[in-house]
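Researcher: I'd like a structural prediction for the single chain below. Treat it as a standalone chain; there are no partners to consider.
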Amino acid sequence: MSSDRRKEYKDDAESQLDGPRDGGSAGDPDGDLYQAEGSLSPGTTSDQPQQRPTRGSDESSIATGLINSTAKQPLSSGNNVFWWLRERCLGRGVVVDPFRENFRIMTSLYSSMNPADSVNLSTRTHGAVFNLEYSPDGSVLAVACEQTEVLLFDPISSRHIKTLVEAHEDCVNNIRFLDNRLFATCSDDTTIALWDLRKLNSKVCTLHGHTSWVKNIEYDTNTRLLVTSGFDGNVITWDTNRFTEDGCPHKKFFHTRYLMRMRLTPDCSKMLISTSSGYLLILHDLDLTQSLEVGSYRILRARRTTASPDSATSGSPRRGNDSRPASNKLFSPASQREGGSPRNSLEVVTPEIPGERDRGNCITSLQLHPKGLATLIRCSSNTDDQEWTCVYEFQEGAPVRAVSPRCSLKLTHYIEEANVGRGYIKELCFSPDGRLICSPYGYGIRLMAFDDQCSELVDCLPKESSCLKEIRSIYSHSDVVLTTKFSPTHCQLASGCLSGRVSLYQPKF
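Model: Treating it as a single chain, here is the predicted structure.
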């Protein structure tokens, strides 16, 4: 299988989507998980936690506790910094999470990231690395690969745990942990598979429903529904708790052409969908128990049939080339709640992209701030000669009716990317505390923050959009980096590249 399968050009995606198609409990795993099949060269991967801010009202008492708890262990050296972090992670400190004004330690921690180890295997049969995902407790790193395989590693020791050789029949695109034991994978073979870390010799089940490549997976913690999206333009919900031998109950929740990525906010109150046509769809006050029809949304139907002057002769769809952000928001009458705002109200946004005001763009990567404060996108121009990373803050109080609509996304930060490896999707990510952004950058990664002190977004919102601050660039790969991921519990970062190498990073003083 060639790596060209990963090249998701806009025209290919659009041709795939030309018209609608129908379509346990947490704990330490055992069994196959800890039967390591091979080990790597010894590394010094750190298991210290990523710091997280807390928003309590007793910040003064927290600060006092910090001084007392560190009186015997001064923070003048790197070892003492990590000793303090480790104690807090284990619950021995005054508080588990550091308070939000602790900029000095955060800046020192983030700016000292360096390559720590590599989790290469002796063989390269797995192909390119398309996605990385940590388990919620940070004990397992799962790797989605081009050649039908899923790799599992212990990120602390860098030891190889297991290879799911034939996890799918085609490229594995995305992995999502539902808890510390159960995870789901999706593939270009149009299926989704569920796996249990306690029994990796076989799948828990295989889900059939998409008619084209399945590209990402989300999990609604409120309804316990699995949500998937693919290049068939469908967003499908799955009730995995009711799986039987006859299959898994599922239904098509939404459909739109040119779909690229779909995400749920951390509280599962919104769904965001990015498209290759340069606009974002936002479903507010989300209710996944309903099935939505595109005909209910006049503005979306109009966008499909309206063409720009340049595209009128070629028959291609309208591109998002507005000179300023555009937003329209409306809802289906059937989706209104009694005495309240409508459920699943749809907003169509054409995000402002620096340097792309008079040109169309494709939103290839979509991520959400861990506290739901903002959305992070990576987009490229239609000609693939420019690539940008942008942060948009969610604006509260956007009206529900389409009378003088207000865009619920505001561009706050941006930066131009290196645009190496044109045609490939590069998956970027937020740190667990939301202070840092990691983005694939050519043959390496780039760490960026909202300001020089690695402040929280809410503490450094600019009056006008400003450039992201580069904290550090690290070049540790011999090929184009396609995906990055922060550990949710440790001061660790992972990246994967086109040649199949996975690198780990940790702070070094």
